[in-house]
Write a structure and sequence with these properties.
Shape: globular
Order of helices and strands: EEEEEEEEEE
Strand content: 15-25%
Oligomer: single chain
Number of strands: 10
Distance between the termini: 35 Å
Number of helices: 0
Length: 127
């Protein structure tokens, strides 16, 4: 499966073979472990999103995920959210940091291809 549209419904089951996750603009959060260990996921599209939370381990172990752009509306990136995303090379935050205040422990741990992350000044808590 190449693309899946995520609506954030309770109990929603995302196919593990998805390559691109398209998050519906009105989804408020990515559930805990929503895409954990999805080995084929390379892209997450948050276009027009009002997303506020990326849940704990939401994308943990997505070894083919290449880059991520955190929407301006996000306030919290959960613990282990992108942990062990070994192909992740780029993490982009909104230039002014947007509403982001919290980055959980180990959010980007073991992302061996990630050379640098610029933490926005809006962040008050890490870990």
């Amino acid at each position: 499966m190449s693309s899946y549209h995520y609506f954030g419904n309770e109990g929603e089951s995302i196919p593990e073979d998805v390559e691109e996750l398209v998050v519906h603009p009105l989804v408020p959060q990515i559930s805990e472990r929503a895409c954990e260990c999805f080995q084929w996921l390379t892209r997450v599209n948050f276009s027009g999103s009002v997303l506020s939370t990326i849940g704990k381990a939401a994308f943990n172990g997505c070894v083919c995920l290449l880059e991520i752009e955190i929407p301006r509306s996000v306030t919290t990136v959960g613990t282990e959210a992108f942990m062990t995303c070994q192909s992740l090379t780029t993490v982009r935050f909104h230039q002014d940091g947007g509403l982001l205040t919290t980055i959980g422990s180990w959010a980007f741990a073991d992302c061996s291809s990630l050379a640098e992350v610029s933490i926005p000044s809006s962040v008050e808590t890490i870990g």
